[in-house]
Amino acid sequence: MKDVLDSPVSLLSGVGEERSRALAGLGIQTIRDLLEYFPSRYEDYRIRDLTEVKDGERVTLAGTIYGEPSVRFYGKKKSRIAVRMVIGKIVVTAVWFNQAFVKKHLLPGKEIVVTGKWDKYKLQIVVSEMAEVDSVRLQKRGELAPVYPLGGEITLAYLRKLIQQALEQFGGQLEEMIPAPLVERYRLMPRAEAIQTIHFPPDVERGRQARRRIMFEELFLFQLKIQAHRRINRQQSEGHAQPVPLDEVRRFIQQLPFPLTDAQNRVVKEILDDMTAPYAMNRLLQGDVGSGKTVVAAIALYATVKAGYQGAIMVPTEILAEQHLSSLQSLLAPHGIQVGLLSGSLTAKKRKELIASLQMGLIDVVVGTHALIQEDVFFRKLGLVITDEQHRFGVEQRRILRSKGLSPDVLFMTATPIPRTLAISAFGDMDVSTIDQMPAGRKPVETSWYKHEQFHYVLEQMRQELQKGRQAYVICPLIEESDKLDVQNAIDVHAQLALYFSEYTVGLMHGRLSAKEKDEVMQWFSAGEVHVLVSTTVVEVGVNVPNATFMVIYDAERFGLAQLHQLRGRVGRGVDQSYCVLIADPKTEIGKERMRVMCETTDGFELSQRDLELRGPGDFFGTKQSGLPEFKVADLLNDYKALEVARQETARLVADPAFWEDAEYAALRDYLQREGILDGVVFD
Ligand code: ADP
Ligand code: MG
User: Which of 131, 160, 178, 229 has its CA 20 to 30 A from that of 403?
Assistant: First the structure.
């Protein structure tokens, strides 16, 4: 359906070829683009009461000209015009610089509206803009006038007029898109009225209402795309309903060494629901370090094996692979489940054997690095893929699996908690499960912040822990983009500490070590043979040494909050009280605030929320990979409630068959069509 709003802006009078090009530079090509080019702010032309105006304020005043203007010229181009003006009972002076042409408009007794800077002591306004009887401006006197982002040859006055013209000619074509019951329930201004009002609000409150309506619409349409996409994916996915014997899974859970937390129970149910449904699961499981994701993974793997499938779990490093292997083995092997390891360091022969047993179905669950999903690895019947700590499992991996005739359920696990608003935006096409609760009895890591000059004091604290038989991590400064300097730093720090703690063994770990060397160091640290581990951030992910109770992080201000939190998660894994010391001399207020936040909370979700507030949503992920949508009006930080409402309402909407058929939703379906969401979808 061709909509007149999709016509080029050149349809309007006053838009020639050149202006068309300039407008295109602002992203305005169609009438719709123009109408949806919203003001970034308003210039306030509301007439003020003189007694309330502060010195130096920009203000709009209305009054009557009293007497003749006086004009003075300086040189060729400079001039000053002054005229007296009566406002109420006060006489003030209005002054124009270098605008000699206004003189002819300044007739005694005439009413004028002037905008400019107020000088309270001289009772004088230096006028920058004037409105009078025969000017266009007069229509807008007393208003809030829109200010738009400009560029090229487009001036503000031109754009205001053009939008005004477009509203008059085409404003009537603006259809309501949000279903009527929702417009009513959320008290939304009708669409056409909102677009008129956001450009030319009669007052602040109406402007606010218009903005609210448009914000809601943006979030609603954004969520509609996501929900429609999800629904279509589910209907068309080649996934299968795994016949999971739920009773057996329940028994398995009861036999675990601890009861699950409520949060774990909830996410287990969400995952099993997906696995037993006929679509392919695409779910993100987020939970703070130590919140117990591994056991949830084990339950899902148990379920897939009992349903007659194989499971695979992918991790970023070999160290993690081995850790997972041993924890999964201890949970699953007693139930007759064969767990194997496929890592890059296997010999060719071992690798071949393992692949063969996978293909024959002799191995039920395989743990591995990305080597797992390679062209020469075949499964007999792969039902579930879990990835831990990274999102490198993407379209390409799915394609490889599909080429082998597999469409497994996929679960992504991450310990980097993301505030819910961002999670449902950035990972919009995934379902999100959250473990937002720690197992009972955990002692939060006590965190403190010291300046570099207090380092000796920190070392004494560390010695006390070592004397108790505990172990410590020392995380070295992060030097941006220089792996080499990171390593050098670690080597220096190691040398110093080895000297200082001569009665203990101080180990060293950094990215330049071979996988084998790293492994050895970690083994020694795990076994308690190394007491202090000096490390670059390679120790970050997943390492589990419960006897380590002390962590020092050098130059903590160089790390992001999320990363600091990850690092800190390496301690506090046992029953003893653990400590984390940040060494930092942050230069900025935000830097100091970040250190304080780290000391105040150990809740990863709260931290990420605070980080978001400190940095803003754009920076939160780092701009490039953010995947966050750009909104014209909505703001994920402030409008998160509306986002949640929009999510719920759109999910309900697309689940209703009427949405896909009834005429009243045609505008929304057209919108999805325009956005390419319905490509390849056949309605029957
Ligand atoms: P994550 O992978 O989320 O960082 P883990 O799965 O490694 O966390 O769990 C951390 C520790 O907590 C493990 O030692 C695990 O056995 C234990 N744990 C997990 N769930 C519970 C629970 N519900 N109650 C007590 N301990 C638990
Ligand atoms: Mg883990």
Answer: 229
